[in-house]
Automatic annotation (TrEMBL):
Natural source organism: Henosepilachna vigintioctopunctata
Matches recorded under Gene3D superfamilies: 3.90.950.10
NCBIfam families xrefs: maf
Protein name per its UniProtKB record: Maf-like protein
Gene Ontology molecular function: nucleoside triphosphate diphosphatase activity
One Pfam family recorded for the sequence: Maf
Cofactors, names only: a divalent metal cation
Coiled coil: none
Keywords on record: Hydrolase
Taxonomy of the source species: Eukaryota, Metazoa, Ecdysozoa, Arthropoda, Hexapoda
Domain of life of the source: Eukaryota
Length: 205
């Protein structure tokens, strides 16, 4: 994100509809001025009724709309609201955040013991000028094969919790991610390059 885009964004009230520390750090890294208003949107969409892209985009849209309703009567009004949802997919199934240790172990076993890659889908919904624009970015992740002992040790660190697919590529999981195809920031939780391209189109910069 370079001028004049970042300058134009910093002239309006930008809100990130997420409590994700990873997304917060990514936006801070580009010197964007923004505030965090977490969404209360109930993430209860039925995966069987959506494609992977539709699922993350519709969830992101729900988060953005939820925060807009919270802020629409405030002064100053928000100029932009960004909602995001990330999901890991493997073998035709979606993997969200692990519910407990057993769930985390099951997920990491699936992702690391087959020899096949997983795909990270991030849906982004941007409210701007009374319209919501959405897009999806996909990154493919190849992981090394882990033993049961290594998986249990990883889960015991607590890193898998709060992360889609039970792993954080920017943390310990970086030691067993062999390679990726696509934007690494997308795996962290926000595809900065694609976001910049979409914002340029939306704001006609």
């Amino acid at each position: 994100m370079l001028q004049p885009l970042i300058g134009k964004l910093n002239d309006i009230r930008v809100v990130l509809a997420s409590s994700s520390k990873q997304r917060e750090q990514l936006l801070k890294s580009i010197n964007l001025k923004f505030e965090i208003i977490p969404s209360d949107f109930e993430e209860n969409l039925n995966p069987s009724e959506h494609t992977f892209s539709d699922f993350v985009e519709n969830t992101a849209r729900g988060k953005t709309s939820n925060v807009y309703e919270k802020l629409k009567n405030e002064t100053p009004k928000p100029g932009m609201i960004i909602g995001v949802d990330t999901m890991v997919t493997f073998d035709g199934k979606m993997y969200g955040k692990p519910k407990n240790n057993e769930d985390a172990i099951r997920i990491i076993k699936d992702l690391t013991q087959s020899g096949l890659p997983n795909d990270v889908y991030t849906g982004v919904a941007i409210w701007y000028n009374n319209k919501i624009h959405t897009f999806t970015e996909v990154t493919t992740v190849y992981m090394a094969k882990l033993s049961n002992e290594e998986i249990e040790s990883y889960v015991s660190t607590g890193e898998p919790f709060g992360k889609a697919g039970g792993y954080g590529i920017q943390g310990i999981a970086g030691t067993f991610v062999e390679r990726i195809e696509g934007d690494v920031n997308n795996v962290v939780g926000l595809p900065l390059c694609r976001l910049a391209k979409e914002l340029k189109k939306i704001m006609a910069v």
